[in-house]
Amino acid sequence: MKILVIEDDEKIVNFLKKGLEEETYIVDYCLNGDEGIYLATVNEYDLILLDIMIPVKDGIEVCKTLRKSNINTPIIMLTAKDSIEDKIKGLDIGANDYLAKPFSFSELLARIRVQLRTSYSNQTILKIDDLELNLLTKSAKRAEDNINLTAKEFALLEYLIKNKDKVLSESVISSALSNMDDTNISNIVNVYIYRLRNKIDKPYEKKLIKTMRGLGFKISDD
Amino acid sequence: MTNLSIKKKLLIYNIIIQTIILLLFSFSLYKTLESSSKDKLESTLKVIVLDVVDDIVEHKDKLTKRVFNEEKEYKFKPLYIRLLKIDDTYEVINSTIFPNDIKENINELKNINKNNIVFNYQKDYIISQMKLFLNNQNYVVEVATNFDTINSTLENILYILFFIVPIILIISIIAGYFLIYKSFVPIELMLNNLKNINASDLSKRLESKNMNDEIDLLANEINNLLQRLQLSFEKISQFSSDASHELKTPLTIIRGEIEIALRKDRTTKEYKESFENCLDEILVIQQTIDDLLFLAKEEYEVLEETKEDVYLDEVTNEAYKEMLSFAKLRDIKLLCKIDEPIQIKGHHKLLKIAIKNIIKNAITFSHKNEDVYIKNYSDDAYYIISIEDKGIGISKEDQKKIFEKFFRTDKSRNKESGGTGLGMSIVKKIVKIHKGEIELKSQENKGTCVYFKFLK
């Protein structure tokens, strides 16, 4: 799950990035509205966290522009303005949710989950065959065995399951799993797929992750 | 009476005043008429008495035979005339028909001076009397008439007044009511308009009819007041939204840092980092609160009284020395040139804060390895402190807003200046306390120069 943070205060960006990455999200960030519009337009994000008081173009502008150009990525507004009017204004121009600063990080996570859930299904547990992925506790189970996954591995597995039965190329996977600061080498995808297979497929008879030669990978239970 | 509307009060006052005026008018009219008709009657009687006396004196041998026909002569009715002999008997010598109910007052008759006409009022009659001395005998001539004519005239007048006064009163009250009602219509309209304007919507204005009358003047004044109110309301709400934003940002960081630090077990190094971040933000909150309090205080009078002699060169030098380490941190060379010792009245501490704020900005917005010049000199009218940098400069548009509370240029926001956004407002206030001026010359990407000017 990829999240774009548009916020002008670097210290806020720092803790958001740290906290969200520990929750297995992939985080890109930028410090002004113009850059935010650019990034949201050229990259695929699952969610945007948007501050209202940002330089160059403010959050309201950014939100309007994105919605005009038919980018319907869920937007959660983060702002120090917390009057009812501000909230209504934010929601009316196309934001999906509104959180007033200073916010509780756990609440932000819950709201992020709500937005991400509505974009595919209303479940917090993803299942494929006897493999279970709990998005709330970030834990994985197969046949009642707990499997320990790193943040990146979890994110990869989540992405695969959400795109069940679809063939995903290395470059698609790598763009979904890496932020702009990561070196974008497709080899990294192979490494993660290899590690993931070791953990979820190797001990079991039925293999879920399949390599489609020359095309990429997919996860399926047939 | 106290809690009636002005309209009702005016109406009541109007009724009272009109009534009093009309009653006074009627009363004085009546009295004047009464006294003037009495005077006229008396003077007429006087003439008749004198005439009768002349007549008697002329025919003194035929006192009893003389016929009094003054009534006919003067066309004055009713007229009663008689001649009395003044002795023990008071015998009527000669008389026209004389009413019985006129009482003789013997004592009075005796006391009448000779050749004097006396008027004697009795119930319905007025009697004029004159003494004369004929044939060694005292006589009194009495000419009398009744009040009937006067009374009927006065009665008529009274009836007229009784009838006319209430009519006039009613007409004038109705007219007054309309006048008052009409003159209050625009005020009531204004009231209704004002009721629709409240603190949440000060943008509305009263309509004026461009008649330039008092109502229009009032409406204009109220509109001016609303304008000023609206401006200050906007300023206040802008300020509080800015203030809350400035305080909420560091709080957000502290809360986020702590919550994330607590989510799982971490290394000592990570905990330390979180603590350091929190401490930084707490210092920002503290500074913001101090600055806000300084700006909120309006104690110019106190500051005016406690002014002392300050050496500007000394203050500048101290500010320069205290900022050296900060400049070094940012790889900026700080240069200071002081021409002469300058003395003004003011506050050492506050002036130093102002100069340091400007130096800090100059350093923050300079590129690495550039110089910042601090100069102290004077021209014909002013003592001047100038702080010049070759940094990023300020755009024309931003120069106008630079002294506003919490204003930050987009560049300075991006530059992580670490300030509270209140520095320039504080500088402005300090300069104002010292009755000085502050000037700013800046070109984008060329640099900025700030001048403190204090009158000699």
TrEMBL record, chain A:
GO MF term set:
phosphorelay response regulator activity; transcription cis-regulatory region binding
What domain of life does the UniProt record list for this protein's source? Answer: Bacteria
Instruction: Look up the DNA-binding region in the UniProt entry and give its residue ranges.
Output: 123-221
**Residues recorded as bearing 4-aspartylphosphate in the entry:** D51
InterPro entries (alphabetical): CheY-like_superfamily (IPR011006), OmpR/PhoB-type_DNA-bd (IPR001867), Sig_transdc_resp-reg_C-effctor (IPR016032), Sig_transdc_resp-reg_receiver (IPR001789), WalR-like (IPR039420), WH-like_DNA-bd_sf (IPR036388)
Name a biological process GO annotation. regulation of DNA-templated transcription
Show where the Response regulatory domain sits. 2-116
Q: One GO CC annotation, please?
A: cytosol
Domain OmpR/PhoB-type as annotated: residue spans:
123-221
UniProt keyword terms in alphabetical order: DNA-binding, Phosphoprotein, Transcription, Transcription regulation, Two-component regulatory system
Pfam short name (any one) = Trans_reg_C
The protein's name: DNA-binding response regulator
Automatic annotation (TrEMBL), chain B:
Pfam families in the record: HATPase_c, HisKA
Location(s) in or outside the cell:
Membrane
Give the enzyme's main class according to its UniProt record, as a single word: transferase
List the transmembrane segments. Answer: 12-30, 157-180
Residue stretches making up the Histidine kinase domain: 242-456
CC terms in the record's Gene Ontology section: plasma membrane
Give the record's keywords alphabetically.
Kinase, Membrane, Phosphoprotein, Transferase, Transmembrane, Transmembrane helix, Two-component regulatory system
Annotated EC: 2.7.13.3
Keyword Plastid found: no
Q: What is the protein's name according to its record?
A: histidine kinase
From the UniProt record, list the reaction(s) this protein catalyses: ATP + protein L-histidine = ADP + protein N-phospho-L-histidine
Q: Its domain of life?
A: Bacteria
InterPro entries registered for this protein in UniProt: HAMP_dom (IPR003660), HATPase_C_sf (IPR036890), HATPase_dom (IPR003594), His_kinase_dom (IPR005467), HisK_dim/P_dom (IPR003661), HisK_dim/P_sf (IPR036097), Sig_transdc_His_kin-like_C (IPR004358), TCS_sensor_his_kinase (IPR050428)
Q: Which organism is it from?
A: Malaciobacter molluscorum LMG 25693
